[in-house]
Amino acid sequence: MVTDCYSAYNLVKAGAKQKCLAHILRNMKDLTGIYPNDLEVIAFSVNLENILGEGLGLHKNYQKGKHTRDGLRKGKEDLEKRMATITKVKMINKKADALRKRLIRYKDEIFTFLVYPDIVDPTNNFSERQLRPSVISRKLSFGNKTKEGADRHAIMMSLIQTTKLEGKNPKDLLLSLILNSPQIRAPTA
Q1: Which terminus of the chain, N or C, has fewer Cβ atoms within 10 Å?
Q2: What percent of the residues of the chain are helix, what percent strand, and what percent coil, each to the nearest 5?
Q3: Can you count the helices (H) and strands (E) in the chain?
Q4: What is the rounded end-to-end Cα distance, in angstroms, of the chain?
Q5: What's the mean per-residue pLDDT of the chain?
Q6: Considering just the CA atoms, what is the radius of gyration of the chain in Å?
Q7: Where are the domains of the chain?
Q8: CA separation (Å) from 103 to 8, 13, 34, 113, 185?
Q9: What is the distance between the alpha carbons of residues 84 and 99, in angstroms, rounded to a whole number?
Q10: What are phi and psi of 63, to 5 degrees?
Q11: Angle (nearest 5°) at CA 72 between 69 and 78
């Protein structure tokens, strides 16, 4: 399961959890954008970016056949040691220290993609792309007026996206659901 650091995901049981590196890198870039002259923030950010970048590089090279799983394991151990070193010291900047604490809290979920390189992605970009049509639909329709409407919308979008992932046409599924409904019958000729 690849997620951002939203705390509700802490309650979910999963065989393996991965925090989205794109979200962590975005948080870091936001921090350096707010504090471009804070040397502590810049040093922390550069070190964090290097560590995460090396992890992403290891994963990419594994996919190209340039690393073995044993190489990934050794690389992960090295990256975790380096991450522990940069997160050990409390920071003066409160926002930077909040990111540091988040990295400590989720330390076992940062490099999961190196343990399961064939099934766990380092980011949740795929999931977010799957949600994008639903978010756009909700925005264009000015949202749902009731909880029941929101629930129906969520179910409908889940059916549509799952059908697409299966390589099928969502219209066929929706039509079959409508036509098999006891309240709706196909028009007769």
Answers
A1: C
A2: 65, 0, 30
A3: 8, 2
A4: 50
A5: 86
A6: 22
A7: 2-115, 125-179
A8: 17, 20, 20, 16, 56
A9: 13
A10: -65, -30
A11: 150
SS3 135: helix
H or E segment and range at residue 3 = strand 2-3
Name all contacts of 99-106 with Cβ < 8 Å and 24+ positions apart. Answer: 99/24, 99/27, 99/28, 99/31, 99/44, 100/44, 102/5, 103/24, 103/48, 106/5, 106/19
What size, in residues, is the chain? Answer: 189
Is 60 exceeded by the pLDDT of residue 184? no
CB 63 within 8 A of CB 117: yes
Q: Which residue has the tokens 């926002």?
A: 95
Q: Which residue has the tokens 């409908």?
A: 156
**Buried b vs exposed e over 86-114: b needs ≥16 C-beta within 10 Å?**
bbeeebebeebbebbeebeebeebbbbbb
Q: What is the dihedral of CA 110, 112, 115, 118, to 10 degrees?
A: -120
Residues 6+ apart with CB under 8 A from 110: 18, 19, 21, 24, 52, 55, 80, 83, 103
Find out whether 79 and 118 touch, Cβ atoms under 8 Å. Answer: no
